[in-house]
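Thread title: Can someone regenerate the structure for this chain?

I was given the following input by a collaborator and told the matching structure tokens would be attached. They weren't. Posting the sequence so someone can regenerate them.
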Amino acid sequence: MRILVASHSYIVDLNCEKLRALVNLEPGIEVTIVVPKRWKPGGVMKDTIETQYREEGSFRVVPVSNFSQNNQALLTFGADLISLLKEFRPNIIQVEQGSKSLAYAQLITLNHLLGLKAKNLFFTWWNLPYKLKFPISLLEAYSLKNTDGIVVGNQDGEKILRDRGFTGKMSIMPQLGVDDSLFCPQSQPELAAKLGIQLGDFVVGFVGRFVPEKGILTLIKALEKIRDRNWKLLLLGRGELKAELQEQAEQFGFSDRLIWIESVPHADVYRYINLMNTLVLPSETTYQFKTLTSAGWKEQFGHVLIEAMACQVPVIGSDSGEIPNVIGEVGLVFPEGNVEELSDRLKQLIDDRGFAEELGQRGYQRAIAKYTNRALAKELLEFYRLL
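Best answer:
Regenerated them for you:
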């Protein structure tokens, strides 16, 4: 089976692990990833990335000339894509830019014009209802009409695509898995000592952006309710709310319990997660359902949850978006924005360390069975065979 995947996401080599695992599942599987030759990540200070060709047996990453260097929806590829398609002749074409992207429509058209007879798929995270105007509505209609299967990152996204009229096969899984060679249970005594974490401290952890939609202010208020417990808060990230978080902690009288860590390379995040007694993802939906516009946000997945689960750290999440479906029965869920309910979940784990350990073990088993790169690769291959 020859599989061609197109996405700017795979410029980052670490993001390729699921597709590397796919090649290694059985003989005869070949994967070619098409990435933009030049790409400028978000942020005005970031330099344009010049991507490089990589080949490892039946797995390769091929930079292709591209138009638009920083907009996923407008990304399209140059004429060198045609020669690549003629040479590789894929059985599966998967574009990970969504149903409204020009790149997906481009690959569908080339598939037809070159007589490749490959199955057309796309991946999307989009989980909010939307309306489209011409000509984008025409673009999506063309793409959905010519789609053989969709991989969608969450259950809300599946429902939306059904509402858009797609009746074909869909599979729900995240775009990227967890690297269980890094994210696994392991003691970090030296790092704990460096950060002033002592034996007996219950470390509540947050990893992400300090922005309103991530619910970080709700977490601070929930911790104020349990000031009588022995806890510390490990905050890994950065964002606009840092000063406000510090000010609130000072008002509540526990600023000395906060441990601030600026964003670190992803390959080091596991060290900090392994210091936590629980990881909290208190995301809060900003989407206004009454207006049916695309403005707003709700949690699309919560990748940090599966990283914590793989480290055997019990997780607490709000009920925003996909979080409850990721956690399942192996963690604790609270109504988003509800300070009392979140403080209650925290008390459960602080007061019953045995229960916390049990949740950590159950989360670990779920992560290994469902969310590792190899597990996702197997699920993806099974989906391809259904088309």
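The longest strand covers residues 202-209.
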